[in-house]
Amino acid sequence: MKQTEITPEIFQLTRFGLVNCFLVREDDGLTLVDTMVSGSANAIVHAVHTLNRRLRRILLTHVHADHVGSLDALADSFVGIEVAVGRRESRLLTRDFRTEPGEPTDKIRGAFTKIATIPSMLLSEGEQYGSLRVIATPGHTPGHLAFFDERSGTVIAGDALVAVGGLRIPGDCSAVFPLPNWGTWHRSTAVESARKLLAVEPRRIVMGHGRPVIENAVQRLKDAIRHAE
Question: Of 173, 184, 185, 183, nearest to 210 (Cα)?
Answer without folding.
Answer: 173
